[in-house]
């Protein structure tokens, strides 16, 4: 029998600007937390941790501030709203989102990027807030990460330039997070 429990982890009206998705991940009991919630608001990706199954939530921590690097949160109605993360078999949290370059040769292009945490969401590797590129093509949104039985990571996204087609990318070496 399933039980539905409703708990609020964001209690202020200042949080009314949360857009898109919220990812909730169950964490191993040995790490000191039971769950992490990851969400995006105003171009910043945040996380909150709980040690008691959501009874209370810790303070908000910044995962990725797009304004701090050479990326901007897309301003389109659909862009940058989807934040998806998983806890992989190496106990890393891998987070994927879409972002638009604000400068350089790819300025204005929207690509999929990822960041990682190897300590259950306390600290994050965002590559200097630029992230690590998953796709080099413009116009990919709504990333979803999946880990296969053999430990590889696959990202599924929608390509708006491909007429709304679905794009699959598999990570060549999921343990080192090298070569999407």
Topology:
Blueprint: E1 18-26, E2 35-41, E3 44-50, E4 61-65, E5 71-72, E6 84-87, E7 93-101, E8 110-117, E9 132-133, E10 140-147, E11 153-159, E12 165-170
Overview of the molecule:
The protein has 180 residues and is mainly β. Helices cover 0% and strands 41% of the residues. It has no helices and 12 strands. The strands form 3 sheets. Strands 5, 6, 7, 8 and 9 form a 5-stranded antiparallel β-sheet that branches. Strands 1-2-3-4 form a 4-stranded antiparallel β-sheet, with no helix packed on it. The model is unreliable at 74-80 (pLDDT under 50).
Summarize the structure.
The chain is an all-beta fold and 180 residues long.
List keywords for this structure.
180 residues; 4-stranded antiparallel β-sheet; globular; mainly beta
Summed over residues and divided by their number, the pLDDT gives a mean of 75
Tertiary shape: globular
User: Helical amount among residues, as a percent range?
Assistant: under 10%
Q: Could you give a short account of the major beta sheet? A: 5 strands, antiparallel
Note the run of SSEs as H and E: EEEEEEEEEEEE
Assembly form of the protein? single chain
Measured between the Cα atoms of the first and last residue, the distance is 40 Å
Counting H and I runs of at least 4 residues, what is the number of helices?
0
> By helix and strand content, what is the structural category?
mainly beta
Strand content: 35-45%
Q: What is the strand tally?
A: 12
Gyration radius over CA = 16 Å
The residue ranges in which pLDDT falls below 50 over 5 or more consecutive positions are 74-80
